[in-house]
């Protein structure tokens, strides 16, 4: 699956797959149309009689995390108190067991570690673990929106599948200092963030994809107190270029043209002949109506890969649009300057021809008159 996603996002040879997708966030079900999370919701008839702090201590109480009924959490085994809850940015380790509504186990991990708040895992897990206490075991019931969404996860999780998660919070500790990471550690961390961005891109959640790519770029760009080998430096640059290219693709999907243009330019600073960046830059400029600037950029991309049909098609489309734009502009300038249209030229010629006939007759008549006068003078002189 990840290989397929990377072909779409990072592969320089596969424009058609990426650009034929007309993914639109409007295709995702709006919040009010998403099915409610299923499962029994135990109501305590005496909950209104308890004090404010007592409700949270009841292990049978369901908590509506987002207030929409789509994500709920219930404590099965109490933890060590509110003070022991993990903080965003910490690395947490949990025991996870995920099941479908029919009880089928689709994921089981005795020790899953992730950075809290970075959206490295399912949103349902990332949001609810922030509300858990150390040592607590909780049951989480989540709509597909906060799990694998409309896409599902082939082959075990169908589209729009709600999940039940059983989670135990085992450990929470501060994330490692980025300045002290070795080259391999930094590359590994950046790649994990990038791959998570690819996951969200595939799910058509471009906002979260951008978030993951941004985090990866921050990891790569962070200062370091450790020396890297030339190979590690080259690999970090490769990951950076991939992140920037994928970031531009996500920004384009959201019509964030200025941001996408900036991402493309950053790629081209490192790799002036990066076909993906050239193509996307041309697309951005075309979307902004800058056909004159977009066409030479797409020509440069086509020169690097003459057989690419997608670049051919895009370039042909832009050339036609540019020609149409120039025609419209020319007509507009003529109207502004008060110049007659080209169609009026024949009328001018016709008018000129109409006036030329009387002048010819006048000239002939004058010549005859002068000849008659001259003849009269000659005759008079002889007499």
TrEMBL record:
Keywords: Acetylation, Cytoplasm, Cytoskeleton, Isomerase, Membrane, Methylation, Microtubule, Mitochondrion, Nucleus, Phosphoprotein, Repeat, Rotamase, TPR repeat, Transmembrane, Transmembrane helix
One GO cellular component term noted in the UniProt record for this chain: cytosol
Enzyme nomenclature, EC number: 5.2.1.8
Any single biological process term in GO: negative regulation of apoptotic process
A GO molecular-function descriptor: protein folding chaperone
Subcellular location: Cytoplasm, Cytoskeleton; Cytoplasm, Cytosol; Mitochondrion; Nucleus
Catalysed reaction, written as an equation: [protein]-peptidylproline (omega=180) = [protein]-peptidylproline (omega=0)
Name assigned to this protein: peptidylprolyl isomerase
Organism this protein belongs to: Meleagris gallopavo (Wild turkey)
